[in-house]
Structure to design on (393 residues):
C-alpha cells in the first residue's frame, strides 16, 4: 500500500469511529486536551475518557491491519 | 510482525491501547509506570505499544483535513452532555453567543498561541509526557522542565533533573533542549539530558545532536556517545553504556565501579529517606550492581555486605551507613 493511500485510510478509519469514541480521540489528538480536560468538558469521568480513548485506539489499530 | 488474527496479538493490541490511554491521565503514579514497564518488557508487548504510538503520530498529519477539523469542532461543541434545565430563548441565545465566543477564543488560543507548558516530578516520581508535536518525554525524579512549541522551533528548558526525549521527526522545527548554559539541538532522535548540581550531561541513543555552549565550538554527538559539561574540554565526549544510561527509565540504577559517595547521591535523588554516609573514609570505594530506585534498603544491604559496613534507621527517617563496630 502506498503511504498516501495508507494515510487516506487512517483518516477514513478515524472518521468512521463511533461518535463517542471519536470525540475523545479528536479532542485529545487535535485539541491537545488532557484526559482530565476532556472528562470535565464532556461531563464524563476520567475513567470513561480512558476507556473510550483505548477503544478508539484499538479500533484504529485493528482496522489499519485490514 | 504479529499475526493479524492471532487472538494473543489482538489482546496485546487491546492492552497497548489501554496503556496508551491510561498514560495520558497525568500525572502517572510511580506504581502505574512500573506496571507499565513490566508489561512492556515483553518484546511483543513493546511492539504493540510502538504500534499504538505510531498510530497516534500518523494521525497527527490529518489535523488540517477539513473532515477532521469539522468533526473535532463538533466534538468540542458537545460539551457537558448532562441534561440542563430548560432556559428562556433569550438566555439560550446569550449563552450560545458566549459559547461561540469562548470557542473562537479557544481555537485561536490553541492554534496561534504557543502556550508554554511546565512539567515536574517530585522525589521518587516519574512521568511520561506526550508533547503536542508527537515527541515523548520521560521525566525522572526531581525534574522540572518547560516546553514551548513554536512554528519554527520546539524549545525545551530543563531547569533541573533528568529527562529522556524521543523526538518526533520534523526538519522544519528543530527540537532544542536548554540545560544550564548548554543547548542541545536534535531533529529526530532519542537522547537524555541531565542537569543536576549545575552539571549538564547529554547521552545519545539514536540519531544525532549538536551541543552548543557559549564561546565554544559546536560538538556533534554520534549514537552511543555521552557528553558532560563537568569533564575537561578534551575529555568531554565519552562512550555511553546504553544499558546503564537508560536504566532509570526502567526504575533501576546501575553502578559499575561507581564511588560510594556518588552512588549514594544517585540513590538519594529518588527517595525522601536519604542515605547518610557516616563512614566517610569509605567514600571512594567502588560499588557495582543494579538497584531499584526509591528503595534504599536493597542498596544498603548490598553495600553493607560488600564493604563490611552497618546501617541503621535514624529517628528522622534517614539511613546512617557507618563502620561496623568491633564485636
Amino acid at each position: 500500500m502506498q503511504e498516501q493511500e495508507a494515510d487516506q485510510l487512517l483518516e477514513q478509519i478515524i472518521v468512521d469511529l463511533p461518535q463517542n469514541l471519536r470525540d475523545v480521540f479528536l479532542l485529545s489528538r487535535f485539541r491537545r486536551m488532557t484526559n482530565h480536560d476532556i472528562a470535565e468538558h464532556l461531563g464524563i469521568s476520567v475513567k470513561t475518557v480512558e476507556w473510550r480513548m483505548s477503544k478508539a485506539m484499538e479500533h484504529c489499530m485493528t482496522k489499519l491491519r485490514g | 510482525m504479529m499475526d493479524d488474527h492471532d487472538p494473543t496479538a489482538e489482546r496485546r493490541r487491546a492492552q497497548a491501547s489501554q496503556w496508551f490511554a491510561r498514560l495520558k491521565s497525568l500525572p502517572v503514579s510511580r506504581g502505574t509506570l512500573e506496571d507499565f514497564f513490566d508489561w512492556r518488557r515483553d518484546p511483543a508487548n513493546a511492539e504493540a505499544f510502538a504500534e499504538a504510538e505510531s498510530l497516534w503520530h500518523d494521525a497527527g498529519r490529518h489535523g488540517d483535513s477539513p473532515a477532521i477539523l469539522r468533526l473535532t469542532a463538533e466534538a468540542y461543541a458537545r460539551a457537558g452532555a448532562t441534561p440542563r434545565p430548560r432556559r428562556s430563548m433569550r438566555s439560550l441565545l446569550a449563552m450560545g453567543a458566549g459559547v461561540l465566543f469562548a470557542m473562537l477564543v479557544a481555537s485561536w488560543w490553541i492554534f496561534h498561541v504557543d502556550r508554554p507548558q511546565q512539567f515536574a516530578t517530585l522525589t521518587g516520581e516519574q512521568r511520561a509526557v506526550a508533547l503536542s508535536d508527537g515527541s515523548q518525554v520521560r521525566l525522572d525524579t526531581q525534574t522540572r522542565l518547560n516546553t514551548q512549541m513554536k512554528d519554527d522551533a520546539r524549545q525545551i528548558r530543563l531547569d533541573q533533573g533528568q529527562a529522556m526525549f524521543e523526538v518526533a521527526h520534523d526538519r522544519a522545527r528543530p527540537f532544542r533542549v536548554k540545560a544550564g548554559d548548554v543547548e542541545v539541538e536534535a531533529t529526530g532522535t532519542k537522547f537524555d539530558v541531565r542537569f543536576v548540581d549545575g552539571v549538564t550531561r547529554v547521552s545519545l541513543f539514536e540519531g544525532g545532536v549538536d551541543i552548543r555552549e557559549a564561546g565554544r565550538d559546536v560538538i556533534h554527538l554520534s549514537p552511543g556517545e555521552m557528553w558532560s559539561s563537568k569533564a575537561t574540554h578534551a575529555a568531554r565526549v565519552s562512550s555511553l553504556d546504553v544499558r546503564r544510561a537508560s536504566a532509570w527509565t526502567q526504575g533501576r540504577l546501575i553502578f559499575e565501579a561507581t564511588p560510594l559517595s556518588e552512588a549514594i547521591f544517585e540513590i538519594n535523588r529518588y527517595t525522601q529517606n536519604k542515605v547518610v554516609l557516616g563512614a566517610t573514609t569509605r567514600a571512594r570505594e567502588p560499588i557495582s550492581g543494579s538497584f531499584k530506585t526509591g528503595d534504599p534498603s536493597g542498596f544498603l544491604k548490598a553495600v553493607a555486605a560488600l564493604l563490611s559496613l552497618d546501617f541503621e534507621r535514624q529517628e528522622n527517617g534517614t539511613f546512617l551507613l557507618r563502620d561496623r563496630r568491633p564485636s
Notes: The radius of gyration of chain B is 24 Å. The first strand of chain B starts at residue 117 and ends at 120.
